[in-house]
Amino acid sequence: MANILISPSKYVQGAGEMKKLGAYTKVYGQKALILISAGGKKRVGGQVEESFREAGIQLIFDTFGGECSKTEINRLTGVVKENGCDVVIGIGGGKIFDTAKAVAYYACTPVIICPTIASTDAPCSALSVIYTDSGVFEEYLFLPANPNVVLMDTEIIAKSPVRLTVSGMGDALATYFEARACEKSGATTCAGGQCTLAAMNLAKLCYDTLMEEGLKAKIALDAGACTKAVEKVIEANTLLSGMGFESGGLAGAHAIHNGLTVLEECHGMYHGEKVAFGTLAQLVLENVPVEELEEVLGFCLDVGLPVTLEELGIKEVTEEKIRKVAEAACAENDTLHNMPFPVTPETVYHAILAADAYGRAYQEL
Q1: Which of 62, 86, 271, 334 is catalytic?
Q2: Residue 1's pLDDT is what?
Q3: Catalytic pick from 62, 86, 257, 356?
Q4: Distant-in-sequence, close-in-space partners of 198: CB < 8 Å, separation ≥ 6
Q5: I need a surface site. Which of 170, 257, 287, 339 has the fewest CB within 10 A?
Q6: Share of the chain above pLDDT 70, in %
Q7: Number of other residues whose CB lies within 10 A of the CB of residue 242
Q8: Strand 11-14 to strand 149-153: parallel, antiparallel, or no bridges (unpaired)?
């Protein structure tokens, strides 16, 4: 099998870049559907409209329905076709990006992704995570191409809630460990081949950047500052993690995240927060050296990522609930089977319980 690396056509990161969105869009089309939340439109809608006026092209705003579901994708695909839009733009967070990418695929248009937060590695990928209308993971939609442009306005992102950027660190935290597992097992990555040296090194750089800059970035963001550490973490959360997971591969952490979505108690938690706990559970499955486990636990505690089931919203931990999570995580089409050894619902069940116990123990130190 070939080694394959894929990436967005253009990645742009800097302060004030949202004001240039019209100019970036004009390269790809003359009429854009912009998918955005109501709150997002209030915050950045004026900048976007002004940039389109300056570029001399049209736009239509549509308010995101809340879930990247087949219902929402079909609705928006109809909006694109009815209005003759020739480019789709997603502005906001992860589910908006995934929906915009899927809509652009079905409508056969280019797609531009403009995060206003750095909470996931979704922006750069040729992948949409599809949920049911009620928010339960359903399937991965693998797309034939990555976004045409990913535009990160760090001035806007630095003003977003700090918890969202920390959640992005949780998502990025899994990148190296999942790529390492896929490299060992020879699993097929999301890019359709095996892990390249470039992808593996991007994944390791992502992890190293989090360890070096994550706590500094969190403290700076708490103070309302956009420092060099913040800039580096935004890139790690988005570009390094995005390319690292896609061309390096997904394994246990994201599958356990998907399992956690079956519990309604976890629906209030962000994607990266659940992935962070999934990372701990994957490391337990692998029986990694205690030094590695302690480094990951220490990082999570430092920046405020959940390390226990209670922190994920599961106030009453029962065998029935955790076995339900483990069963879902081991679904035939999920990525837990990319681990370099056989995994069963029984071993995942015990790994989740042990990860929770380690988290509680380290909280008390």
Answers
A1: 271
A2: 86
A3: 257
A4: 5, 247
A5: 287
A6: 100
A7: 30
A8: parallel
Cα gap 127→125, rounded to integer Å: 5
Q: Has 171 been annotated as catalytic?
A: yes
Residue 350 appears among annotated catalytic residues: no
226-280 per-position pLDDT tens digit: 999 999 999 999 999 999 999 999 999 999 999 999 999 999 999 999 999 999 9
Catalytic annotation on 271? Answer: yes
pLDDT-derived band at 361 (thresholds 50, 70, 90) equals very high
SS3 state at 214? helix
Residue of 62, 98, 153, 171 marked active site: 171
Q: Clarify whether 257 is annotated catalytic.
A: yes
Q: Which two tokens stand for residue 192?
A: 């359709």
In degrees and rounded to multiples of 5, residue 357 shows phi and psi of -65, -45
Secondary structure (3-state) at 132? coil
| Cα–Cα distance, 8 to 146 (Å, whole number) | 5
The Cα 246–Cα 249 span in angstroms is 6
Q: Which of 242, 244, 243, 261 is nearest to 331 (CA)?
A: 261
Q: Are 173 and 162 in contact (CB under 8 A)?
A: no
Q: What is the pTM of this model?
A: 0.92
H-helix or E-strand spanning residue 153: strand 149-153
Distance, CA of 327 to CA of 73 (rounded, Å): 28
Q: pLDDT by residue (tens digit) across 265-295?
A: 999 999 999 999 999 999 999 999 999 999 9
> Quick one: tokens of 327?
């069963």
Written as six digits, the tokens of 326 are 């483990």
Residue of 254, 267, 334, 337 marked catalytic: 254
